Amino acid sequence: MPTYAYETVDVFTSSRFGGNPLAVFTDARGMSDAEMQSLAAEMNYSETTFVLPPADPAHTARVRIFHRTAEMPFAGHPNVGTACVLARHGRDKDGVLLFEELAGLVEVKVARDAAGNVTGATIAAPQPLSTGIELPADGIAACVGLAPADVAVSAHKPIQASVGVKFVLAEVRAEALARALPDITAYRTLEAAHPALEKRLSLFIYARDGATIRARMFAPLAGTWEDPATGSASATLAALLLKLDGGDSARFELTQGVEMGRPSLLKLTATRGPDGVRATVGGACVPVFRGEALL
């Protein structure tokens, strides 16, 4: 019976049982796609990663990312967590790891304390900002149990955007953020009304006070009722805000997961370059479990 070692970490937190948990299978050679998907569903985390040899030996690894029901082209906390796990095994080169993923090559820089212990990581999103369709404020409000007036549209309408994986970003009034609650019927209605979403309606709502952001993410149709920390959506938001605000670069701090009892802190940058606006997301990471799966 084949066995596969895994480790779990809590990402975007320096305290165990905060942040967003992640399972990392450190050597997934010999594992089928179906087994990866089944293990991700069994782990029941927002995502689970599977580490494989890279196609290019100059890179660290090929990393496949699965949520409960499907594979993802890119995601934030899986990259931060996987990098921290592999760096603790000595697989970084001068603090840098390069991951081959469906969305492209992801560069990760790990942070260490004075004793050399890995404490966190920062990833560069693999693609510049791209934007898609705008969505009606009333439909977005219905998806999260809010009134249409709770959705702010002065800076931007709810919009699909990506730096490697697509999210719908919507600003809400600060006091409305804590009241949000997903409505499955409204999600299905909005998704069916907008084929351009391509059956991906992951909704990232946020309230902003300058460079300080509070956010929540709901993707109930994909099996994630609420996510305690969504690095890829946060990076996308940073890129979008820089595009809207103007300037060459910006920094933000984003808090998520508070309403779930798993507070997370994400540090974001956005930079305007020749190919568009690019973003990074980083934070702390702590180890939690080690084990093995029997297949």
Give the SSE layout.
Layout: E1 3-11, E2 20-25, H1 33-43, E3 48-52, E4 61-66, E5 71-72, H2 76-88, E6 96-101, E7 104-112, E8 118-124, E9 130-134, H3 137-143, E10 151-152, E11 159-162, E12 166-172, H4 174-177, H5 184-193, E13 203-209, E14 212-219, E15 224-227, H6 231-245, E16 249-256, E17 264-273, E18 276-294
Parallel strand pairs: 2-3, 4-6, 12-13, 14-16
Antiparallel strand pairs: 1-2, 1-18, 3-4, 4-5, 6-7, 7-8, 8-18, 9-11, 10-12, 11-12, 13-14, 14-15, 16-17, 17-18
GO cellular component, one term: cytoplasm
Active site: 47
InterPro entries: Phenazine_PhzF-like (IPR003719)
Would you mind describing this structure in some detail?
Pfam families: PhzC-PhzF (PF02567). Belongs to the PhzF family. This is PhzF family phenazine biosynthesis protein. The chain has helices spanning 33-43, 76-88, 137-143, 174-177, 184-193, 231-245; strands at residues 3-11, 20-25, 48-52, 61-66, 71-72, 96-101, 104-112, 118-124, 130-134, 151-152, 159-162, 166-172, 203-209, 212-219, 224-227, 249-256, 264-273, 276-294. It contains 6 helices and 18 strands. It has 2 domains: 3-123 and 284-294, Diaminopimelate Epimerase, Chain A, domain 1; 130-274, Diaminopimelate Epimerase, Chain A, domain 1, CATH 3.10.310.10. The protein has 295 residues and is an alpha+beta fold. Strand 14 and strand 15 form a beta hairpin.
